[in-house]
Amino acid sequence: MSAQFIAVEPFDLVVFGGTGDLAMRKILPGLYHRHCDGQLPPESRVIGVARSPLAREAYVERANAALRRFIAPTALKEACVEGFLQRLQYLALDAGADSDWAPIVALLAEAPERVRVFYLATAPDLFGPICRRIAGAGVLTPKTRVVLEKPIGHDLPSARAINDEVGAVFDERQIFRIDHYLGKETVQNLMALRFANSLFEPLWSHSAIDHVQITVAETIGVEGRGAYYNGAGALRDMVQNHMLQLLCLVAMEPPSSFTADAVRDEKLKVLRALEPMSNGALATRVARGQYQAGAIDGKAVPAYLEELGGANTSSTETFVALKAQVENWRWAGVPFYMRTGKRMPKRLSEIVVQFKTIPHSIFDEGAGEVRPNRLSIRLQPDEGVTLLLMSKDPGPGGMRLKQVPLNLSFADTFHGPFPDAYERLLLDVVRGNPTLFMRKDEVEAAWTWIEPILDGWGRNPAPPRAYTAGSWGPSDAAALMARDGRSWFEDAA
Question: Which phi and psi (to 5°) does residue 194 adopt?
Fold first, then answer.
């Protein structure tokens, strides 16, 4: 089976921060792939906007170099590259100042009937000012959308301020808060797995599930993002958005339909049902760490402080593990364990649903241990789903039990590669489909749950626990699970 690609209507996409890493690494390559598959109408344009005083030709050269750097050589087709580069325009503009917007106004006025997408690949403190200037320039139309990159603020008050500033210009239906995790094929398949099959949903509750583990592990360090990361940390950078969204998709009730607000209403209920993290709970339900020098795949890597340029100290966590509880009937007593960190042994994003053990085994001890079923949903790499079942080990000599996997590999089954998350999400913006984007109240509910953790850390001067690069985090993370008689599934990882 292969994917069916449906073209979108003509659009102009204006990328503020058009020379930045996100534009070059993700946005332009994503649009290139959609161009090659015929989803972009011939007249659609991509307009880079940044402070650099570049001519269009110089911007096209940068974009060309980015495509050849971030796209696999097998996917680079010279005719496609040339055709895509012809779509590009560039305008030099300081979006943070009262610059002359006349060139943008004139360029967009050439096609007033098109969908207009303003992608804000900038610092969050520019979201409000840019939106005000968009309104002041008179380029808003009924078909205008705005895309906000994470983070939406650094705490609840700043998130509310950003939402209010942007909301003063755009209707909520026009605002697309992007979380690329929600665009991943496997994340969307979680919805199909739960709600398009009669097998799992009757078991999807405390009656059959023991606990859930969500892991997002990276082998990289701060990778040139030290200034941003040192002011954010793993909790803000990963948990507040990506990981809580994954938790919501696992824990949500079946929506009445697969429409944007029906899905987002159910996710919001999960966020509001999370047991608040009290001061006393931080010591037993949260672990944080910071990586020290170590080795990954036999290669030595420096400590976090070294990557910051030799700073003497930092209280920023590069690893965090948490135990969350969803306080409703479906999930009463089922813990959700989350962990994320940099400089882990391997790159991995995975949701593991651990089912309960059988209440009584009919087999004697010689048959071996009857182990509980486990469902693993791999987001990256090697996207797929694995269900561990007990089976008889073939051969004579009586009953011998063995746990075996049923594997669904997306690449093998559907003959990938598949569109990147940004490819899908960018075209959803053009279509005006906000299902895979966060709503204002979702963002604020997530910050409401995260804030007590940040406040508790602020009152506690103790630094994050050290862990060696190439390990699975500090010992506190293992202790968090051990208190409940459980352990992380590092064998699966």
Answer: -75, -45
